[in-house]
Design goal:
Layout (H helix, E strand, L loop, with lengths): L22 H17 L15 H24 L18 H21 L1 H15 L6 H21 L10 H4 L2
């Protein structure tokens, strides 16, 4: 008995991948080239350390290039993607625009409110609004989880990584 649902990982003999299927490998290739190119411009300073500030961007760029090549080879060898028979998505259903609008509104609220209300409150509203848009009821649980995640990420970035995130009215409690 196969562990995969019917259609999973199968190839269709004689099928060739279409141009649209190469969008992901092409995107990865462009991102990899841009990342490596931009990493060249990072000043490395006068320290004698073997690992400088360019190492991580170079590693990410090379990894992106590697993924692009592997994805393109897989497309050529397998003849493109084959839809899984076990997929439970209704391909005839239209886009649920009200849900898309609510998700966009939650993100836009974060963009507009992050400076005056701070990251912890903005992240709470983003998480709660996204969960609500996707059907979570009641809203209190996602808001509490969002508050915990917002505070945790704020403290991680400001205390441990030394990066600035606005705290808004919580500046008094969280410090600056």
């Amino acid at each position: 008995m196969s562990e995969h649902p019917p259609g999973a990982g199968e190839t269709v003999p004689g099928r060739r991948a279409g141009p649209a299927e190469f969008a992901v490998p092409a995107g990865l290739l462009v991102l990899g080239v841009v990342t490596v190119w931009q990493a060249r411009g990072i000043a490395s300073g006068a320290s004698g350390a073997a690992i400088g500030p360019r190492v991580f961007p170079y590693a990410v760029g090379v990894l992106l290039l590697f993924c692009a090549v592997v994805a393109a080879i897989a497309l050529v060898r397998q003849g493109g993607a084959v839809a899984e028979a076990g997929e439970d998505v209704d391909s005839q259903a239209g886009t649920d625009w009200p849900t898309v609008g609510r998700l966009a509104a939650a993100f836009l609220a974060l963009v507009v409110l992050v400076e005056p209300l701070g990251w912890p409150i903005g992240a709470m509203l983003l998480f709660g609004g996204t969960a609500w848009a996707l059907g979570a009821r009641p809203i209190t649980r996602p808001l509490v989880i969002g508050a915990v995640l917002g505070l945790a990420t704020h403290l991680l970035f400001t205390r441990f990584l030394g990066l600035y995130l606005p705290a808004g009215p919580l500046e008094v409690v969280l410090g600056g």
